[in-house]
Structure formats: C-alpha cells, structure tokens
Specification:
The complex is a heterodimer of chains A (496) and B (150).
Chain A lengths: L2 E6 L9 E6 L5 E7 L6 H5 L7 H5 L7 H16 L5 H32 L11 H8 L1 H22 L8 E2 L2 E2 L5 H30 L2 H8 L8 E6 L11 E5 L5 E5 L4 H4 E4 L8 E4 L16 E2 L2 H7 L6 H13 L19 H22 L17 E9 L2 E9 L5 E7 L1 H4 L1 H15 L7 H12 L5 H4 L9 E6 L5 E5 L3
Parallel strand pairs in A: 1-16, 2-15, 6-11
Antiparallel strand pairs in A: 1-2, 1-15, 4-5, 6-7, 7-8, 9-10, 12-13, 13-14, 15-16
Helix pairs in contact in A: 4-5, 4-6, 4-7, 4-12, 5-6, 6-7, 7-12, 10-12, 11-12, 14-15
Chain B lengths: L1 E5 L9 H9 L8 E5 L4 H7 L5 E7 L9 E5 L15 H10 L10 E7 L12 H5 L1 H15 L1
Parallel strand pairs in B: 1-2, 1-3, 3-5
Antiparallel strand pairs in B: 4-5
Helix pairs in contact in B: 1-5
The chains are: A alpha+beta (496), B alpha/beta (150).
Chain lengths: 496, 150
Amino acid sequence: MKQRITIDPITRLEGHGRIEIFLDDAGDVTSAYFQVPELRGFESFCVGRHAEEMPNITNRICGICPEAHHMAAIKAVEAAFGVECLPAAQRIRELIYMAFFVADHTTHFYCLGGPDFIVGPDAPAAERNMLGVIRKVGLDVGRQVIDARRRNHELIKRLGGRGVHLCGAVPGGWAVPVAREQQAEFRRWAGENVEFARFSLKMFDDIVLQDRTYGDLVFSDLYCHATHNMGTVDETMAPSLYGGRIRVVDTAGVQVACYDPADYLDHVAERVEPWSYMKFPYLKKFGWHGFVDGQESGVYHATPLSRLNVADRMGTPLAQAEFERMYDAFNARGKGAGGRNLPISHRLATHWARLVELLHAAERMCELLDHSDICDPAVRQTVAPRAGVGVGSVEAPRGTLTHHYETDERGVLTRVNMIVGTTNNNAAISLSIMKAARGLIRGGKVTDGILNRIEMAFRLYDPCCSCATHALGKAPLELLVRHDGSGELLDRIARS
Amino acid sequence: MVVIGLGSPFLTDDSVGPRVIRALADYNLPDVRLVEAHAGGLLLLEELAGTTRAVIVDALLDPRRSPGELVWADCGAATHNAACSHDCTLPEALAIGRAMGLSLPEDGDIRILGIVARDVATFGEALTGEVARVLPMACQCICDHLVEAV
C-alpha cells in the first residue's frame, strides 16, 4: 500500500511550512516535498509607499532577519535614487551587519542545529534544545551564548536605534556615527566574539567531528547531494556578507556566473508550483528540469556552505585557517578545476560552514573597529528622490537576499520584488529531505528518531518561512506521512 | 517593571500589543520601561533580564471568545508570539535564563494580557473595530495592574 508522511509542526522553524513524504506499496519513499501553504502579498502591500520607508517596513517581515531586510532595502533605495552611501556610514552598516551575523549564527548553532549533535538525534524532542545543550556541556557554555547574543544585540541597539527592528538606515548614510567613547567597548566585544567563535569551532570539532556517530553523519552519503552554489564575493573572491558580486559555481566548482546583483534576472528565474506559496528560483543557464539535483539541473543552494563553496579564500586570517581545515577534511581543498576547491555537497557541513562564517564576522568586526575613520562623523547627506530602478542585495544568514524596487519621480514605489534567503533553497530543501527520507525509511517503518533525522536535512538550511512567503508572524508546521495515490494520512508528527 | 507589546505593526490586529505600548507612553508611568517587540523566545529573555515584574501584551486568537475581549493569563499560557521557532518558547527561555543565574521575575510576576483579535493575517495598519475600541480599556487594565502589583 502506498503511504504518505507529513511533518507538522517542524520543530524550531520560523513560519508555516509542511514536509510531506509519500510511500509506495512496499513502504519505501517515492517522493518528499517541503510545502508552504501560507499567504503572500507583502510586495503589493508596499506599492504606493515612499521608498525610503522600506528599510523600516521590510525589517518587520520577520523578527529574525530584520537587519538583512533593513540593509537590502536601503541599498535598493539608494540604487533607485542614484546615490552612493558615504564611506563612514557603510562601515557602520557592515559593523552592525557582522554583529547580527554573530548573534544569528550563534543562536542557530546552539538552539537549532547544534542540539541534534550535542544532545543527539535520537534524544526525545523535548530535550533537543538549548537547555539540553546546557545539560550536556555545562552552564558556562550557556552563559557564553547568552552573553554573545546580548553584547551584539546591544551594539545593534546603540548604533541602530532599536534592538530588534533597527531604524538607522537613511538614503546615502546612517543616522548616527560611532562615538569615540563607544569604539573601545565595541572593540572589546568584537574580540570576545572572536574567542567565542573559536571556542564554538573547537566544540564542534570535539563533540561532533571526533565522535564517530555524529562525525559519520556529517560525512555520510545520507545528507549528500550536489546542486550548484551561490554566494556573494568581494573582488578577491572572498565571501562578502554585506554585499559584492554574486558568484555561482557548478557542482564541480567551476564558475558559471559572477554578476552584479542588479542583473539577477538575467541569471535567475522563478518557478511557481500550485501546491506552495513559496517560489522556486532556478538558474536560467541550466533551466528547470523538476526536482532533481546534479550538473544538468538548474537547482542551486544559497547557504553558509554554498558561500564557502563559491569562495576562493576567506577575507580574515583565522577564518581562512578554518576554511582550509574544513575543505581538507572532505579532501576537497585545491582538488577542483584550476586548483579551486571542490564544492562540499555533504549538507550537514552547513553547520560547520556557519561556524566558519561566525568567526569571519567576528574578525571583520575587529577590522572595522580598528579602521582609522570608524568614528568619522560624516554619515549623512542630502538625497533627492527620483524615478528609478534599484536592486539591493546582501547575504542573509539563510541565503542571498535581493530587494528590487521601482519608483516614480516622487520616490513612490510602483513595483517591489524580493527573493529572500530561504526562497533560493526551496527546491534544494525538498531534495535534501527526499535524499534523507529515501535512505532512512524502509518498509514503511517510521520512528520519531527517523523523522528527526529527516528534519535534520531540513533544519540545516535554517529556513524562515515567514520571510520566504513574506507573511509576517509565525504559525505551526507539520510533517505528514501519506499514501502515494489515495493520499490517506498514515502518520502525523505535531510538536509545539 | 517592564511592559512589552508583542506583534507586527503591519498585520491588522496583531499590532495591538505595540499599539498599547505607544498609547501607554502618554500615561507617564513612573519606573516602567515600555518595549515594542515582534519576536519572542530568547529576545524576550533579554528584555526581561534585570526586572522584577513584567506585563506582556499580545493579540490572542481564541474562537471561544469575542474579538476585543481582554484575558489575563500567566506566563505558562504564553501566546504564540511569545515563542520564537528559531530558538525557544517563553517558559524555555526563562528556564535557560534562570539556569544561567540571570535576574528574572518569578513566573507569578510575569502576566500576559491577551487581547482577542479578529484578524492577524491581513496586511494592514488599522485595527478591526472591536479591537480598536478596547485599546483604552487595555491601557487602563495595565495601569490598574501596576497599581495593584506595587
């Protein structure tokens, strides 16, 4: 008898989504999909607004990535108005953005992704959380996590005007400069971030990579499949989270595109499926061939792992050393065409890549705060609205974020389009779930531990459905097992 | 004392929490910190740290009740917005904070004021009529609670 599995709610996920797994008569997996049955419409809600309002409207799309939307929005406004951000303001924006990355990646590792490894994938769901992590590794780690979040949120609050939904971006600049008396304290915090990131990488090494069970999971075929890779790079081909050119490398690590974000529509197309509100972007060069991975498919991913896969190097020294160690571990360093690294396709390595990015963001904060002009008061300029088209792009923690605005001569928005981090990964998420489900479910046997290991294939992307559907707020999620044919519901996992 | 209004300003009645906070700013409440927030979990923990008492105001979806109804609850019955699915629920966040030795209010000193909403899914900046009408009452309710709690 064919069966169908749906997970609902997917634990520890922002927004409303659903995993559905279909089983055939023998109880084996025929297909699996990540589905978002939630409303959209944020773009049309924004039409008619003054463009300069967008940084403060779009940062309410969700409570998790407000900084990413704030920065992408102000860049799109500036592009539409034909203005360059002042250098001092740009440094402040990047400083805030790096603090956001430190806080966000810390939270994901210790609260969402890490518990599967630190507490264990077969532990009861109620224990696979940060409290479980603290019980396993000690109170001091918990204190470090809380402190890391607190100091970086405090920096964002002081420079951004508000803690959660910052409001510092103005066209061409930033609302306030860094005060001389703030610099030393922020620099101390940045140094603490570096130490915390190194500690986190050491813990990942000790607890995950040195543990045979967990280490085998990271290197296993279960979570390995090849798609193309997307990420933002600077002129040296190092990852550039605040912005740069978008680089795409294929499944073998060969560059297939490196473009200005304003040209994204020349490279990326969006497909709509009737069963999901979330769009399915794909690379035009390869086209859409359905839910398949591999070199011929247009499916790509935009994640911490893909950002390292597209990079030739890291822009900071400690992160560079960790980058090399990671690619060495997969025997991928320098093994690709032209001496490039081969891309790592083992998706659980995304957690590792996230920690390398955490270290890079912390180091970059130090560099910015050591800059001789970090306290330059020239952060604002007069800007006139105009009719124009502007694209703003940053790397959000969950993938490349693109805002695309068109304005009339009053600076009022006439068209808005967004591709958010999670949306880039929509097809890849389904493929990762399918790969894991096919490897884990045999003869219709589905246990809680198996379902959690399937969720791990999904959780590594840290998807944010409220961003991806542009639906504000949060709603439950589900995992369902269904008969493939009749659609009969055979199992349902509902966790709060 | 901290009063936290949870919700999105762009989702019709979901904005009632932040709207209460903005309205309370005119009451000149002494020794009360007013906070607008859109995310729960650990972010709420950071707002609660260092306080001894707290009120969290949020939109509440409850088909058994009429829109505009005011419902007091304790923090064990926290609203959906008080949780963050990127980290944890409010009770979990409090447990983590206490394990860390943070100075936090006792559970009994964290009160949730739920305002029953009609619509939290439509993009819009106006409250529905029933919810808009009870905004002053919700503010007064909180003021009365602050007096009683002293």
